Amino acid sequence: MNTPANKERTVLGFKPALDAGYEPRNYSWLPDVVAVGNYEATLDFMIWSKKHVAVDCYLTVVGDGKQIRLTAYRNKAEDYMAGELAVTYLPFGTRLIVTVALNGAGYPKWTNAAVIDDGEPAAG
After folding, report:
1. pTM
2. Count of alpha carbons within 13 Å of 8, Cβ hemisphere only?
């Protein structure tokens, strides 16, 4: 597992996120907006999910500026994961290579992520 050195969680509650000026409604999780494949995105902010034991991650895709939402679910070790990357400790503004596939219902599923350090994905 790849966990950042910072052990302070950066995930916000819904109201604190709104109070800080973040706007979750501007981000889409729908398959016509969230592209399948590998691409670069910037982590804008994260909010604890109301519907699942998960963290909703709000990202801006580098290049086209699309604002997307991907969900990181909790594993047995109680880390919230995007593939091998624990996301709850990532600082906002972190650049990532994200991997997205479609789940059985045809919706985007975050299958992996890697932190970009100096333009290259970090070794994990």
Report:
1. 0.86
2. 3
Could you state, in order of their start, the residue ranges of all structural domains in the chain?
14-117
H helices of the chain, in order, are 14-19
Cβ-Cβ contacts under 8 Å for 97 (sequence gap 6 or more): 38, 39, 40, 113, 114, 116, 121
| Backbone conformation region of residue 91, classed left if phi is above 0, alpha if psi is from -120 to 50, else beta | beta
Contact (CB, 8 A) for 47 and 17: yes
Q: Which residues of 9-35 are buried (b: 16+ CB within 10 A; e: fewer)?
A: ebbbeeeebeeeebeeeebeeeeeebb
CATH number of 14-117: 2.40.50.140
Distance CA 57, CA 108 (A): 13
One-letter amino acid for residue 41 of the chain: A
pLDDT in tens, 38-56: 999 999 999 999 988 999 9
Which amino acid would we find at residue 121? Answer: P
Quote the mean pLDDT of the chain. Answer: 89
- Which two tokens mark 51? 């519907």
